[in-house]
Design brief:
elongated; single chain; 62 residues; 2 helices; mainly alpha
């Protein structure tokens, strides 16, 4: 059986993980919150791009 990975869901979960890690390490590292939010924004943008590409591909096959 071939495993299909939904990259949109993966990127959204990674973005939330970086957001939570940024808040969790706020007292340990000086710029952890800034880094966590920046990485979250990057992964949300990547997830949006992949979702738009997937939507365009499904419209072409119909």
């Amino acid at each position: 059986m071939k495993l299909r990975i939904n990259y949109v869901v993966l990127f959204i979960m990674l973005s939330e993980g970086f957001f939570i890690a940024g808040f969790a390490l706020e007292n340990v590292l000086d710029y952890s919150l800034v880094i966590g939010i920046t990485l979250q924004i990057i992964f949300v943008i990547l997830a949006s791009i992949l979702a738009i590409k997937k939507q365009k591909n499904t419209n072409r096959t119909k």
